[in-house]
Amino acid sequence: GAGVSQSPSNKVTEKGKDVELRCDPISGHTALYWYRQSLGQGLEFLIYFQGNSAPDKSGLPSDRFSAERTGGSVSTLTIQRTQQEDSAVYLCASSFRQGANYGYTFGSGTRLTVV
Amino acid sequence: DAKTTQPPSMDCAEGRAANLPCNHSTISGNEYVYWYRQIHSQGPQYIIHGLKNNETNEMASLIITEDRKSSTLILPHATLRDTAVYYCIVRVGGGGYQKVTFGIGTKLQVIP
Description:
The complex is a heterodimer. Chain A is built from no helices and ten strands. Chain A has strands at 5-7, 10-13, 19-24, 31-37, 44-50, 65-69, 75-79, 88-95, 105-106, 110-114. By secondary structure, chain B is mostly beta strands. Chain B has strands at residues 9-13, 18-23, 31-38, 45-50, 55-56, 61-64, 70-75, 84-92, 106-111. At the A-B interface, β5 and β9 of A face β3 and β4 of B.
């Protein structure tokens, strides 16, 4: 596709429910990142995928958070037993591994609200 | 922790140049300086990047000091649509992986 696509754009869920957020990176981009942005805050790194290498999960805030990337393309971020503090905008970005002349391309994010 | 520091906010009159500073005193030799901006309710957008030479594109100019410890993003003729949060980050170029943290950026308000 022409850009990074994220779905849903908005998600309201009840506390304790599980949610799945989806990211479709730009075709050919081998690197994929998830960030979280709470209201008025900067971007908090969550997880990074690069090709077939083991992902860098060091930014995941708890074991309720997990992510996978199937076939080196689409990625899903799953939050189990959601809490109100999980409310934030979840941003996905992708980039070429080689020659990162254009840096990251971000999607428009998924706004998650836990009520 | 972010490897860059930026002022939290700035104002600029419409039509004037906006000069946004960034300090990156611990930058490594293989790290580039990247600038992004985030307009309300959108994902961050790439603006420009550089290693050590000054760079210019259709959006902005990037001035990097000779010691590479700081840089300035210049929007030559700011418009109201340039009101956004501007992020300065450093990261390796050429495909190397690096976990990058975005700080809170500079909130630029362009005033009519």
